[in-house]
Amino acid sequence: MWNAKYWRDLAERAIASTAAGAVTAIGGDTLNVWSADYRMISGVALGAGLLAVLKGLAAKAIGDRDSAALLRGQTPVK
Predict the structure, then answer these.
(1) What pLDDT was estimated at residue 75?
(2) Which distant-in-sequence residues (6+ apart) come within 8 Å of 48 by Cβ?
(3) Is the distance from CB of 6 to CB of 59 less than 8 angstroms?
(4) In 27-45, which positions are buried (b, 16+ CB within 10 angstroms) versus exposed (e)?
(5) Predicted TM-score (pTM) of this structure
């Protein structure tokens, strides 16, 4: 469970989900950096990242041991 390949895969997924959460929280409107609600943006982004980590940990018992994917035989794209 504690091999580097798995943790790199999980970190990549968590970072991507955190970034996607931030983009979702910002929405399609023009971002005004002076009036943006950074607490809300951070909360949504970190929540998405946390869910990605929890899903990756749960997937370890279901999928391949070296991947954070739920499906067996799935390897990260290189």
Answers:
(1) 57
(2) 17, 18, 20, 21, 24
(3) no
(4) eeeeeeeeeeeeeebeebb
(5) 0.73
